[in-house]
Amino acid sequence: MDKLKITGGGPLEGEVHVSGAKNAALPILCAALLADRPLELTNVPELMDVRTMIRLLNQMGVRSSRDQPGSVRLDASGLANPVAPYELVRTMRASVLVLGPLIARCGKASVSLPGGCAIGQRPVDQHLKGLQAMGAEISIEHGYMNATAKRLRGTRIVMDMVTVTGTENLMMAAVLADGITILENAAREPEVVDLARCLVAMGAKIDGAGRDVIRIEGVSSLGGASYAVMPDRIETGTYLAAVAAAGGRVRLLDADPGTLDATLDKLRESGARISTSDRTIDIECSGRPRAVNLKTAPYPGFPTDMQAQFMSVSAVANGTSVISETIFENRFMHALELQRLGANISIQGNTAVVIGVERLQGAHVMATDLRASASLVIAGLVANGETVIDRIYHLDRGYESLEAKLSALGARVERVK
Ligand code: EPU
Questions:
Q1: Can you give the three-state secondary structure of 99-136, one letter per residue?
Q2: Mind listing the pLDDT tens digit for each residue in 245-267?
Q3: pTM for this one?
Q4: DSSP conformational letter for 222
Q5: What is the position in ligand 1's atom list of the atom closest to the CA of 49?
């Protein structure tokens, strides 16, 4: 299994290209299931999760081709097997995003329940509740969600909590439903908006994506489209956090600063000098960051997907930071690994108190999930000596060319087999 070896020390200097957003690309790939005409995508990141999703679509009968890096052409005219098997779903929870489109297009679907997860329980009850309200009959048998529906009916759905993939699944189901669907308490994440834009390009009628009430008027069929996936705001934030911790001067290219307000605010509070233009973000940091308190929340609040990376910044900050995680109940696994690097962190319930130390020390640590791994990379960059991170397949799921991008900034990062 691959490991990442990082020799800490030294500021980061240079430029990084931001990749397409994983969490926008995954639902958008599933949107291809809704049409019998090709969907041509660009700015699709080269990631394990993207490859897994394409494999999942392929085994349903979707034809795919990738002519050049970042482009994917999907043709679901031959969609024949509306099944998502456990072998694929268990490696990637986002597979559940095929459920809505499959019921809408095929009138039936069999999708494995995702099972356990390292960051929290993550049930899919809201996805099922919404689809049932639209007329789907769903039973759970042998670990699979088996759904049937002649044609889904538009209705009003109030979600119990803000759920990103829940909103996306129901939005994709509703675009082909009979009549109007109103999704209340919908997620406002930029990835939901990106999916809606792609669906509209395919001929869907959607109003209000990006607000907490989304109105979808069902159409009888969707067509093909060409669409460019939005920049990855979490990858962007991860590099920004790395600079906040390690110091230096970096320009991020092909970014979308408009999707990062809460993250940029916290970085400025920590002492980073940041300027933005339409597609670039410049960050400059010197000396230790200042401690900042933060609490994760649905968009436009501070993203849970940036919490681990900020814990690494806090670990070397001047002062004490209080970090509250309100989205997932078990998303502090990185804290124990950061302690192995000398961080001073105590956890009580969903709150972590981080007393910044002058310097971390390199050690052997283990990645537990995608963003936890990113936090360990940041910590490794500011630790004395060598840090070896085990189980980096988590990083390969969500960060394109991580070592190459960090090396271009002057970091000493090496993948060892
Ligand atoms: N929830 C339920 N029932 C549901 C759905 C969600 O109780 O039916 C709960 C979850 O357990 C959680 C909260 O609602 O406590 C929010 O979860 P949400 O459904 O929004 O998460 P998700 O859609 O499964 C996406 C991202 C995650 C990101 C979260 C929160 C994708 C593919 N994944 O997950 O990304 O952390 O939204 O913003 O979009 C990552 O990229 O590392 C990652 C984990």
A1: HHHHHHHHCEEEEECCCCCCCCCCCCHHHHHHHHHCCC
A2: 999 999 999 999 999 999 999 99
A3: 0.98
A4: B
A5: 32
